[in-house]
Amino acid sequence: MPVGAALPLVHSCEASMCAYNGGHACHAAAITVGNSGSAACETFLGAEVRGGTDDAHAAVGACHESSCVHNERLECSAPAIDVDTSAGHAVCLTFARA
Fold it and tell me: Tens digit of pLDDT for each residue in 32-53?
């Protein structure tokens, strides 16, 4: 992805226990997907306090999951991603092993 190009958006997020989740949407400015082997959302924060802003629509700022077909130089090239929970962790459902 060229520098300055639009970042992929978080289309939906079902991680309702996350401080940044409101109405099945992520209200962080950007998230990071980690390299845990399960494409975990490293921005997930299980907390009582709410984070982000209501008008923010999160983008994927970085993706460290280099084994994903959408990963280009640690950036996400998917047009958008979906996030859900699995085994108590928020994970990128768009992850597809290369």
Answer: 999 877 899 999 999 889 999 9
